[in-house]
Design goal:
CATH class: Alpha Beta
Number of strands: 12
Order of helices and strands: HEEEHEHEEEHEHEHHHEHEHHEH
Strand order of the largest sheet: 1-4-5-8-9-10-11-12
CATH superfamily: Aldolase class I
Low-confidence stretches: none
Strand content: 15-25%
Helix content: 25-40%
Number of helices: 12
CATH architecture: Alpha-Beta Barrel
Largest sheet: 8 strands, parallel, barrel
Bound molecules: ligand PBG
CATH topology: TIM Barrel
Mean pLDDT: 96
Number of domains: 1
Shape: globular
């Protein structure tokens, strides 16, 4: 073996903060971050979400204010999620493509008042179904793929008409990206982008989100295992991403974040497309809880996770910490 020491001293490049910055491989910036925003009916409303301290549901007018500030501070985009009134839910989820629905109104209002904002709108049926699943159920309780995709395309078109920049199908039905791309093209929305939740795992880290959009009670003890991916697999993720690229996705999403960075890295190595990573609600709540206990330093652990997600290959990160991270980076 060649004698490397003392010729090589690795610590030289770690010796001062200036040198460390000079050789740093990944740098996070505000425009890499996407803030999820929960929308609810009403006026002048800000509702706390008990399982996600610090995160709120906003009525449209208050969401506009929030997004105005975020946009001014350089956020990359916002991702909208609705809490739908129980009376508007059904098995067919027809409220999802109501042109005057909550999200459609929110998109129009935000685009009007904050034209510089970039809006990602979620395409999935779970906030709109009585049973909390992302698809339409057969009488026997099976989730019907093609029937669901029909509804998703209508939902996507109504979001595009309202002015969404990016349509984000998070449902994991087969073939939905192609069908959404087709309906957008047919209706001349040739510039509307598709962010496909391609590698979305059936994860236990989504609990607080389901609380926030109000689907947790409807879902009960049922799982989403027949459409979201098995967390033991990587091969599936590669196939899903490849398919979605071929079907017309502009970017792909990997979700959850931190426990799935091996997936991010593999996709980054194999395929050439912007990768978005979702640091999900359960990840947020874990970091929040441990910080409230005083057991770890919130700012430091959050910034570390975001840097690690980027290091693994993320182009952008959806995180409930986006707003705070923007402040910390200043
Ligand atoms: C539903 C959807 C979920 C999330 C985003 N879109 C939950 C689910 O699949 O049940 C989870 C996000 C989070 O946990 O932060 N289509």
């Amino acid at each position: 073996m060649k004698k490397s020491f003392p010729n090589i001293r690795m610590r030289r490049l770690r010796s001062t903060s200036g040198i460390r910055k000079l050789v740093r491989e990944t740098n996070l910036c505000g425009s890499d971050l996407i803030q999820p925003i929960f929308i609810t009916e009403g006026k002048n409303k800000i509702q706390k979400i008990s399982s996600m301290p610090g995160i709120n549901r906003y009525s449209i007018d208050m969401a506009v204010k929030e997004i105005r500030v975020l946009t001014k501070n350089g956020i990359g985009a916002v991702a909208l999620f609705p809490q739908i009134n129980r009376r508007k839910k059904s098995n067919q989820a027809s409220e999802a493509y109501n042109d005057d629905g909550l999200i459609q109104r929110a998109i129009r209002e935000i685009k009007k008042k904050v034209p510089k904002s970039t809006i990602i709108s979620d395409v999935a049926l779970d906030p709109y179904t009585t049973h909390g699943q992302d698809g339409i159920l057969s009488k026997k309780g099976k989730i019907l793929n093609d029937e669901t995709v029909e509804v998703l395309t209508k939902q996507a078109l109504s979001h595009a008409k309202s002015g969404a920049d990016i349509i984000a199908p998070s449902d994991m039905m087969d073939g939905r990206v192609l069908k959404i791309r087709e309906i957008l093209e047919r209706n001349k929305f040739v510039d509307t982008m598709i962010l496909a939740y391609s590698a979305k795992y059936s994860s236990n880290f989504y609990g607080p989100f389901r609380d926030a959009v109000g689907s947790i009670k409807s879902l009960g003890t049922k799982s989403k295992d027949s459409y979201q991916m098995d967390y033991a697999n990587t091969g599936d993720a590669l196939r899903e991403v490849e398919l979605d690229i071929n079907e017309g996705a502009d970017f792909v999403m990997i979700k959850p974040g931190l426990p799935y960075l091996d997936i991010v890295q593999r996709i980054k190595e194999k395929l050439n497309i912007p990768i978005f990573v979702y640091q999900v609600s359960g990840e947020y709540s874990m970091m929040k809880a441990v910080s409230q206990k005083g057991w770890l330093n919130e700012k430091k652990i959050v910034m570390e996770t975001l840097a690690c997600i980027k290091r693994a290959g993320a182009t952008a990160i959806i995180t409930y910490y986006a707003k705070e991270a923007l402040k910390w980076m200043k």
